[in-house]
């Protein structure tokens, strides 16, 4: 069975240490499929779905407390933003609603204090494409497949498989880097792990639309859900130290990607074992035994191989 994986990331935060104080500037993206990845020091590339709203939430924290402001430079006409000010910290919101065909654009968000502390983040906003062929599996509970989830065209030459459920497993996160006695420590402040059924790519031969085949494909999706839960539990509480905020954040990202790789490999092995042990669902006795195992793993993902 075919599995597709997407590794997603969310904009993180930057902490700047100055004479006698620290200023942190953070931004978090929320949208239909908007995702931001770090591509350089203080530079992030954000994909936005045209004609859909993506919201950027900005926040600052300054220690010791003093007046601080957040403002933006280079905003396009399809963005809404208002300069924010506060004492000890400030919060701002930027609403983005890019029209179709909009070119990439760079936006800079800055924060500064009266004493001279300053920080900035540069976001390269790039149009992405909406994905109407995907259905997001609820973060809690179990997604029940039906034949409407199989809308793709089957191969012309049949093989061992008579149906194929295609899905994407990915995660996005927010993190922060804060000063410590020996440097900086980066930690996750939020993490989301998503499993999506790709209806546009999943397929079944018309003559294979049987309850047994659907049960077997449901098993594949349930196995993916097991490892989605395992990935979420493994990522929670992740902390990495570095000499600078950028280094700590970079190392945290590397560690998160390594965790994803390891969990993905475990899932690959489980999916292959499932197919071989059940003869792609043809061995009904083995199919029932695997369904029992999968149900156990869903209750406690740590038991999965």
Index terms:
Immunoglobulin-like, six-stranded mixed β-sheet, five-stranded mixed β-sheet, 3 helices, elongated, 305 residues, alpha+beta
Count of DSSP strands: 18
Helix and strand sequence: EEEEEEEEEEEEEEEEEHEHH
Q: Report strand %.
A: 35-45%
Task: Provide the number of structural domains.
Answer: 2
What overall form do the CA principal axes indicate?
elongated
Which secondary-structure class do the elements indicate?
Answer: alpha+beta
Taking all residues together, what is the mean pLDDT? 83
Instruction: Enumerate how many helices there are, as a single number.
Output: 3
Share of helix among residues? Answer: 10-25%
Tell me the Rg in angstroms.
23 Å
- Distance from first to last alpha carbon: 18 Å
Strand order of the largest sheet: 4-5-12-11-7-9
Largest sheet: 6 strands, mixed
Low-confidence stretches: 1-18
What do you see in this structure?
This protein has helices spanning 211-235, 245-278, 284-299, and strands at residues 4-5, 13-18, 21-30, 35-40, 43-48, 54-63, 67-73, 79-81, 84-87, 89-96, 105-113, 118-127, 134-136, 163-164, 167-180, 183-198, 203-204, 239-242. A hairpin with a 4-residue loop joins β11 and β12. Helices cover 25% and strands 40% of the residues. It is elongated and about 70 Å long. It starts with a strand and ends in a 6-residue tail after the last helix. α1 packs antiparallel against α2 (245-278) and α1 (211-235) runs parallel beside α3. The protein has 3 helices and 18 strands. The model is unreliable at 1-18 (pLDDT under 50). A 6-stranded mixed sheet has the order 4-5-12-11-7-9, with no helix packed on it. Strands 1, 13, 15, 16 and 18 form a 5-stranded mixed sheet that branches. It has a 5-stranded antiparallel sheet with strand order 2-3-6-10-8. It has 2 domains: 8-130, Sandwich (Immunoglobulin-like); 131-305, no CATH class. By secondary structure, the chain is of the alpha+beta class.
């Amino acid at each position: 069975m075919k599995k597709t994986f997407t590794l997603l990331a969310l904009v993180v935060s930057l902490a700047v240490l100055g004479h006698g104080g620290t200023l942190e500037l953070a931004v978090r993206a929320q949208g239909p499929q908007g995702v931001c990845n770090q591509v350089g020091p203080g530079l992030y590339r954000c994909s936005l779905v045209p004609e859909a709203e993506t919201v950027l939430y900005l926040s600052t924290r300054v220690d010791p407390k003093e007046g601080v402001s957040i403002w933006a430079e280079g905003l396009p006409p399809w963005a809404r933003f208002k300069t924010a000010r506060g004492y000890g910290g400030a919060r701002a919101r930027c609403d983005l609603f890019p029209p179709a065909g909009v070119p990439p654009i760079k936006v800079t968000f800055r924060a500064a204090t009266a004493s001279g502390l300053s920080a900035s983040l540069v976001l390269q906003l790039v149009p992405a494409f909406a994905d109407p062929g995907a259905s997001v599996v609820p973060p809690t509970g179990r997604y029940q497949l039906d034949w409407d989830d199989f809308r793709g065209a089957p191969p012309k030459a049949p093989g061992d498989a008579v149906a194929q459920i295609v899905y994407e497993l990915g995660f996005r996160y927010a993190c922060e880097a804060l000063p410590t006695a020996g440097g900086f420590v980066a930690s996750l402040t939020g993490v989301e792990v998503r499993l999506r059924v790709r209806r546009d790519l999943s397929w079944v031969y018309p003559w294979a639309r049987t309850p047994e085949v659907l049960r077997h494909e449901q098993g594949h999706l349930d196995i993916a859900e097991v490892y989605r839960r395992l990935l979420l539990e493994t990522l929670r509480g992740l902390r990495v130290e570095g000499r600078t905020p950028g280094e700590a954040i970079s190392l945290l990202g590397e560690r998160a990607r390594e965790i994803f790789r390891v969990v993905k490999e475990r899932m690959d092995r489980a999916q292959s074992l499932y197919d071989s042990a059940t003869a792609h669902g043809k061995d009904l006795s083995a199919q029932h035994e695997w369904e029992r195992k999968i149900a156990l793993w869903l209750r406690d993902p740590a038991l999965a191989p």
